[in-house]
Amino acid sequence: MIKVLIADNHPIVRLGLKQVLEHSSDIEVIADVSTTTDLFETLDKISPDVVMLEMDIPEINGIATLRKLKQEYPSVKTLMYSGQSEDVYALSTIRAGAFGYLSKSADLDYIVTAVRKVSQGNMFITNELAQRLAFDEGTQKPRRFFRKLSSREVEVLKLLASGKRNKEVAEGLNLNEKTVSTYKARLMKKLNVDNLVDLLQQAKALELY
């Protein structure tokens, strides 16, 4: 069962989302809150798999709340949603650590699909956004998602993903161990994570290796 917490200051929106999600036999809404204070107080007591977080929730803005969630509850995956189009917030929320972004104008089917995908640690974005992100707008050439990784960064990432330690990566790429640490720190910065587990999870979700 996928456990979901909904954070939105509009009671009718919370009720609507709950009804849509609980039509699915594998999803349970275990709590809903209206402010960020309520959100963090609730997370001290329960452990949802997915937090559906409204971008404009009162008290702390959505991006700041997202970063705090990532820091204090790293196992909880966040699906952001907003009345704003994907063009406005999607990229910045995903860079800040969200596992997906959903516009309130999206089809109802997308909500269930997004929650399922995010709960598994995979990234959810619509096909339209994926198409825009997959190509460099200037040259129309394919690019890697979000921020480009250098070829050397990709090599380091692949070796880390295969389970190799810094020393083994250094030996495999004929680098010194300190340089590998630098590459690893740079990768974490680009993918907005602060530990190796999240780095590999985020990189896999973004299909970077």
From TrEMBL:
Residues 3-119 form the Response regulatory domain. Residues 142-207 form the HTH luxR-type domain. It holds the Pfam family Response_reg. Keywords: DNA-binding, Phosphoprotein. It comes from the Bacteria. CDD domains: LuxR_C_like, REC_NarL-like. The keyword Magnesium does not apply. This is Response regulator transcription factor.
